[in-house]
Amino acid sequence: MRTLLLLIFILGSFNGFSQIQNPFEDFFKYSTFYTAVNGGNSISDQSVFSVNTGLLTEDVISTPFDYSATFGVRKIQRFQYEPATPFKDGTETSYNDAATLGRLKGKFEYLFELDLRRQQGNRYVDQNHFIRYMADKWMTKVQYIQDGFADIEYFQASQRLRLRSDKKLSFNIGACQRISQPYGFDPLETWLLDNGGIHYTYLAIQEGYSVDVYNGEYYDPNGNLVATSPEVWEEVIIPGVLSDYTKDEKDKLARQWQYSVILGFDYYTYKKDFWLHAWGNLLPYHYNNGGEFSYHNFNDGKQWLDYSTGMIFGYKITKNLGTFVEGVYNKYWDRTWYDFKVGVNYLIR
Asked: Which domain holds residue 342?
């Protein structure tokens, strides 16, 4: 289903398709296919002590090792500040992948990357897929983002006119279409108490868990013993129960369409001792379709601002001393996710 939606987005986005000359010519030329597996130990085992009928008991919380498995294909022309690398190991952070514009004109650029990871015992699925086409006066981009750690997932397509100020700076304006889960909807709201707490044990029982109060034992829906003390039950099992319940309830609802106006800018300059690549996107207006789970309903019927921005800056102060700042920041609906690097390098000759 997601693949079908992505194809629909792609076909719907290229409304200027007839203007493109041989867009699929050499489509895979200079592309890179890659796969990589990385791993390492996680946090050490933790002991949880409790007293039951006067006896001291110990439960050990073990966290399995961390890992990531990355699979992808990309065709993105490198910016001048990017170093050439012989291999991709799946751990690289290419902030400019989030940029609106690239360096390649008149050809498709794309990235399709799947990242399966386990971090401190929690499994996440990260996906970053996009395909874009840039011409002198217009551009279009289709993407699918899933960030398991930030709990964000959406399809997005945009079609924009480019307004060039000079060779370094350009502005763009157009339309944006997004498909996502109903952000703003909280399935746990019906379980809240007057004091802000939650009936978490009763919710777990409703989900199939069972509790032996007299023996202090807790069982999952399959009858497996998962905890022998209230501490382990509350600190280890309940967070997973609440997370699974929230996900299941949201998955029962239909995906929501969001139509928005999008404004953006892109700035790029490069010299051997100084470079700056900055971009930003602002979605100031969103069409209200009157749906029950439209984000307008969770925002008191008002408009809101969604935006994304990024910057890559480098400056070689002397031949030996240099500094850099790199990062991206995103805010969509009630979600924010970001990543950044700041540092100083000094080379001893």
From this structure: 2-57+61-185+253-346
Same domain, 233 and 262: no
Q: Say how many C-beta atoms besides its own lie within 10 A of residue 253's C-beta.
A: 13
Q: Do both 31 and 148 map to the same domain?
A: yes
The number of folded domains in the chain is 2
Helix residue spans in the chain (DSSP H): 2-13, 200-206, 230-232, 238-251, 295-298
Separation between Cα atoms, residue 185 and residue 295, nearest integer Å? 8
pLDDT at 251: 81
From start to end of 41-183, where are the E strands?
A: 46-52, 55-61, 66-75, 108-119, 122-134, 138-147, 152-164, 169-180
188-221 pLDDT per residue, tens:
877 777 666 778 888 898 899 999 888 888 999 9
| pLDDT tens digits, 65-94 | 888 899 999 998 889 998 877 676 666 678
Residues 306 and 263 sit within 8 Å (Cβ to Cβ): no
Dihedral sign of CA atoms 26, 178, 1, 143 in order? positive
Could you report the per-residue pLDDT of 280-299, keeping only the tens digit for each? Answer: 999 999 999 888 888 998 88
CA 80 to CA 96: how far, in whole Å? 12
3-state secondary structure of 228: coil
Distance CA 46, CA 63 (A): 9
What tokens were used for 86? 């012989």
- Cβ atoms of 312 and 93 within 8 Å: the answer is no
C-alpha count within 13 angstroms, C-beta hemisphere, residue 285: 6
Enter the pTM of the model. Answer: 0.76
Burial of 173-185, coded b for 16+ CB within 10 Å and e otherwise, reads ebebbbbbbbbeb
User: Of the candidates 194, 226, 251, which is a domain's last residue?
Assistant: 251
Is 270 in the same domain as 130? yes
- Closest by Cα among 3, 10, 5 to 255: 5
Query: Three-class SS of residue 325?
Result: strand
